[in-house]
Structure formats: structure tokens, C-alpha cells
Design a protein that fits this description.
This protein is of the alpha/beta class. The protein folds into 2 domains: about 5-140 and about 300-360, Periplasmic binding protein-like II (D-Maltodextrin-Binding Protein, domain 2); about 145-300 and about 385-430, D-Maltodextrin-Binding Protein, domain 2, CATH 3.40.190.10. Helices cover about 45% and strands about 15% of the residues. The protein is built from 19 helices and 11 strands. The strands form 2 sheets. Strands 1, 2, 3, 4, 5 and 11 form a 6-stranded mixed β-sheet that branches. It has a 5-stranded mixed β-sheet with strand order 8-7-9-6-10. The two termini are about 35 Å apart. Mean pLDDT is about 95; it is low at about 15-20.
Length: about 425
């Protein structure tokens, strides 16, 4: 049965295969700043843990740029061994004929055993095939959570909400205390994709797109989603919700400055927020509507996964598998989790961090993991939709028009659904 190897066990397992000259592999990614630095540190740890393989990480700019570079390189026969692909680009790389070797196949072919149950619930499915086989190896995984300005709650005499009904009750008190009650940083991931997951509602046909690209249609006119955005617009008009465009940092800043009571952000933002927040903060789960039957299920991950590109020699594939095994070791996962704020993707790494008292010291760092480990539902595992980065752009355009008063919620969601379904139909014609 698969158990993520400790660093000592990993080095011992590879010692018999070490050779005079290391096999070189490359890892293209789309991360910068501190997160890019941590990738370099992970690569260094791998290279120092053994002598059979040497990995070189290369930044390709943004997530979108990394995906475009990887696809172009594959077509030219110059692909890296490992490509980081963000959540919205998963369908593109998975449906590119012959582009990747499923991570689970790569690992078992290298002689390792693999247990999907070793990974936490909300991580397990997003980059997997319909039968559960891991296609991508989850890497920088996060959940949309609610950050809490504890000083604002104390002044208003309220508690953090579990449901959106709770939020409606306390929002006037927070406003009266001098705070903007709520901001968020990504209406697509947090209030659309994970709205469906948190409320266990089907997001698209064909099993949310996992079963087939043919005739897949998105469900943007669901009455519950219409209700959510109608509420958001009403809250904005009443001064309970602030929308500052599609830019992540533009919406986060009010919380950092201590002017907003709640910010819906990423659990992966925890590390940076410790340095930028001007007021003490905590965190809690993403709220849901108690009035929606079946609501309260887990969310799925954001972030990105690592894909093993095909067309590489056996020795390089073995090193890629070795690196994936190294990456899932409890010690490396714990290091990455604590260095970045992204969640630990395996149960063993989570338990290691817990056993060492990390969450007693920093309880907000545990919220994303706990939310991903909530009971799942039929529709809480994520989606797989082609041309999804472009679909997100349509969403952002129409959401901006809602809050600018240029269109109604109903018309905006109908427009998104129509244009998104056109893109899905086009994708079906191009996918192999």
C-alpha cells in the first residue's frame, strides 16, 4: 500500500540506482516572487537528497504563459519533463492527444505503489480521470476561505458567519462599526465554481465535463446562482459588499488595510497575508446558503498540478516519477505547506504538521485543509471544461457589468452561459 516516503526512506530507495552522471530533467512553472523561490528550494532539496537525478525549474511567467509555452514546446518536440498547469487549464492539457503520461501510471511504472486514499478528499479528484486515476500530480493546492478581521468583529460585537444568512444578519452591525463587511478576490473561482461545489449543485453536463467533451454545456442560469449574484449586487448597493474589479490584489487590499471585516481569498494567501495584514486576522470556512438543500459540502482545490510530458526517455521518466514521490513525502509537503500557505495535499503531511503543533501556533493555516476534508457530494469534486480560461474572461466581463449597473444578473448569466457553451462546442471539435 502506498505511503509517502520519508526523506531518509526516499534517499535509501534511490541509492541503488544512483549513477556517476545524474539524469537531468526540467520543470516549467508559472510562479514568481516568494512562491517561485520556494519552487527553487524544493528542487534543491530533491537534488541534494539523491544523486541519480537533477531537476531544473524554469519560470515561464504566468500560469497562462506556462501552459501556452508547454503546448507550443510539445508540438515542436521540445517539451519539458514536467509542466505546471493551473486549474482552469486542466482540460486543455488532459485533452491534448498524447501530451502527458498520467502521473499514477508514471509512478507505478517506476516501481512505486500508489494509493489515491493517501491524498485528502478535496485534492483527490480535480486532476484525475473519471475513474479516479491521477492524471496530474496536485502541487500548489488551495481552497477559497473567509479571512476574518478579528478587531472588526470585536467592535461590532458579532461572530464570523457560517452561512450567508448569518452574514446578512451581522452585515449592518459591521457597517455601523465603520467597516466594509465583505470583499472577495475572484468571483469566478470563489463565487461561481466553488459556489456549485459548496452547495453540491451540478455545474455542467457530462459529469461536470469529466466524462466527455462532446455536447458538454455549462449551468450558469441555475436559480441558486442567480440568487447568489442578486444578493451580491444588493449587498453592494447597501454598502455591505465591495467589488473592485477582477484584479486579485485590488480587492484584497481593503482587508490588508484593516478596512474590511471579511475577505474571501485563497488559503494559499495565508503566508503573504501574515506579512501584509495591518490588523490581527483569523479564518473560517467559505459560507454557504443554509436554505439550499444539500449545501455545506467541501470545496475543491484551486492552484495547479504538475503534469509529466510524454515523449521523454525512460531514464528521464523514472526521474520524474522519483521527483513526484519525493514531492509527496510528508516532510516536503509540510515544508511547502508552511513556506507558502498552500495546503498539504496528503493526510500524512497534514498529520505531521498537526503533531508538531503548527496549527496551534497558526490556526488559520489549517482552515483550507479542513474545508477540503469536509464530506463531499456528487457535484463537489470540481469540473473539467475546455477553453475555460476564456470562459473565465467572459464571466469577469459580465460580472463587472453587473456591478457597474450595465446589465441585470439574469441577463449577465444568460450571456455567460450562451458564450461559454459556444466555446465548449468549439473545444469539442479540437479535442482528440
Amino acid at each position: 500500500m502506498f505511503k509517502p516516503l520519508s526523506l531518509a526512506g526516499f534517499a535509501l530507495a534511490l541509492s541503488a540506482t544512483a549513477s556517476m552522471a545524474a539524469t537531468n530533467i526540467t520543470w516549467w512553472h508559472g510562479m514568481a516572487g516568494r512562491n517561485g523561490e520556494v519552487i527553487n528550494e524544493v528542487a534543491k532539496k530533491f537534488n541534494e537528497a539523491q544523486s541519480a537525478c537533477a531537476i531544473t525549474p524554469v519560470s515561464k511567467g504566468t500560469y497562462e504563459e506556462a501552459l501556452a509555452s508547454g503546448i507550443a514546446a510539445f508540438r515542436a518536440g521540445e517539451q519539458p519533463n514536467i509542466l505546471q498547469v493551473f486549474d482552469a487549464g486542466a482540460a486543455t492539457i488532459i485533452n491534448a492527444p498524447g501530451a502527458v503520461i498520467p502521473a499514477e501510471d508514471l509512478i507505478t511504472q517506476a516501481g512505486y505503489t500508489f494509493d489515491r486514499e493517501a491524498f485528502i478528499e478535496g485534492v483527490r479528484y480535480f486532476y484525475a480521470a473519471p475513474d479516479g486515476k491521477f492524471v496530474g500530480m496536485p502541487f500548489n493546492s488551495s481552497a477559497p476561505i473567509m479571512y476574518v478581521n478579528t478587531e472588526a468583529l470585536e467592535k461590532a460585537g458579532v461572530e464570523a458567519p457560517k452561512t450567508w444568512e448569518d452574514f446578512e444578519t451581522i452585515a449592518p452591525k459591521l457597517k455601523e462599526a465603520g467597516y466594509l463587511p465583505l470583499v472577495q478576490s475572484q468571483l469566478t473561482w470563489q463565487f461561481t465554481e466553488n459556489f456549485f461545489s459548496r452547495h453540491n449543485i451540478q455545474f455542467a453536463t457530462n459529469n461536470n465535463g469529466y466524462d466527455s467533451v462532446v455536447d458538454t454545456k455549462i449551468n450558469m442560469t441555475d436559480p441558486n446562482l442567480v440568487m447568489m449574484f442578486t444578493k451580491l449586487k444588493a449587498w453592494a448597493d447597501e454598502g455591505y459588499f465591495g467589488y473592485y474589479g477582477a484584479g486579485w490584489n485590488d480587492n484584497q487590499k481593503l482587508f490588508e488595510d484593516g478596512k474590511a471585516a471579511f475577505w474571501i481569498g485563497s488559503s494559499g494567501s495565508f503566508g503573504g497575508l501574515q506579512k501584509t495584514a495591518q490588523k490581527p486576522f483569523s479564518a473560517t470556512f467559505l459560507p454557504y446558503w443554509g436554505s439550499v438543500k444539500g449545501a455545506g459540502t467541501n470545496t475543491f482545490i484551486g492552484g495547479a498540478a504538475l503534469f509529466a510530458m510524454s515523449g521523454k526517455p525512460d531514464a528521464e521518466n523514472k526521474c520524474t516519477a522519483d521527483f513526484f514521490q519525493f514531492l509527496t513525502s510528508p516532510e516536503v509537503q509540510k515544508f511547502y505547506h508552511e513556506a507558502t500557505g498552500y495546503v498539504a495535499i496528503t493526510k500524512a503531511a497534514y498529520e505531521l504538521a498537526k503533531s508538531e503543533g503548527y496549527y496551534k501556533e497558526k490556526p488559520a493555516a489549517e482552515v483550507g485543509i479542513q474545508q477540503l476534508m469536509l464530506p463531499s457530494g456528487e457535484w463537489s469534486k470540481g469540473y473539467r471544461l475546455g477553453f475555460y480560461p476564456q470562459i473565465r474572461e467572459i464571466m469577469e466581463r459580465e460580472y463587472g457589468r453587473i456591478f457597474a449597473g450595465e446589465t441585470s444578473v439574469e441577463d449577465a448569466l444568460k450571456t455567460i452561459e450562451t458564450e461559454a457553451n459556444d466555446l465548449l462546442a468549439r473545444f469539442a471539435k479540437t479535442a482528440g
